């Protein structure tokens, strides 16, 4: 019964979650810890730490919360079973609603013993960002196996070490994910290049690892980034600037693009998902949080909003498609997503995308009829789920203080540091 209740809550955490991490380069995480598991082969627990993580506002969903009917329709066809997803982020906690099977702590490996007060392993998510992202993925594909690759954090007591990521660490993290045989890679962190020279160098550096992902059949999904001082319109945003990466923007509703979200590099291949997370998984326990607590007496609680949490919805869809079509190519998956997206907003109905035949041809020019088709396949429950009071909006969250979607991970100039997207309500 307990397992059934947990699964019900997980199903309810759906496509409405994600996003709003604070300025990516700051990567301000919020919280992390170790959930219990009854599997004898469970991974080692994260040891207790003395680090102080930012507070959050807990949320207790109604115990009888019912999953959205459209989610059940998706899960009737696929749950992501047998598919491995690498979450390159701030760490993913071993929450009981997540199937975290392995991990690597890139920060710890890079900084060595001096990282002791910055990170205690890949399942430590003081930022809460990575856990939220993972929960978002699991809402669509609850049976996926998650690999946590921790490559950045904004929470540190060591002012002499920079735990933030850059383009080089992003590339290393992608390589690690490929070494660990990930079928899908989610990057809710991005690197922003403000000038053409830097963009050209970054494009060349990233191309080799994406070549490898293509050869291995691994689909790479990334946030398009949030508009912020560190990532601005006109910047070249990585890894989404590579046309082989599925770049995901954010929506306020299925028909309304979020103003804080940056468009994908190729606007003709627009893909987007809900960027608001009403509540998500708490990395420090077994429950949920609905917002990040105020940072000071004159500040307000920070909502969970941003492209960081839009990307994992698409990642969940790809994981479900991978289960259904294990022999399809990365290009076939990309074209299927483009073919099933609304040309005006980029919205993709998870039900329609997962249940329809795989599109192996290039994306066709869409007409009003195509737009009507995507709306037809979107259950009415989606509309009510958009209400802040709806338990259907439940979304696994772990990015906490990371108010946006990790944006600037690049190298060289200050603006090229790894960023999480800024949140929509108070982007920094």
UniProtKB/TrEMBL annotation:
Signal peptide (residue range): none
GO molecular function: serine-type endopeptidase activity
Top-level division of the source organism's lineage: Bacteria
InterPro entries per the UniProt record, alphabetical: Peptidase_S8/S53_dom (IPR000209), Peptidase_S8/S53_dom_sf (IPR036852), Peptidase_S8_Asp-AS (IPR023827), Peptidase_S8_Ser-AS (IPR023828), Peptidase_S8_subtilisin-like (IPR050131), Peptidase_S8_subtilisin-rel (IPR015500)
GO biological process, one term: proteolysis
Keyword Nucleotide-binding: no
Claim: Hydrolase is one of the keywords in the record: yes
Record-annotated Peptidase S8/S53 domain positions: 80-341
Key words of the record: Hydrolase, Protease, Serine protease
Catalytic residues as annotated in Swiss-Prot or TrEMBL: 89, 129, 308
Family (UniProt): Belongs to the peptidase S8 family.
Descriptive protein name: Peptidase S8/S53 domain-containing protein
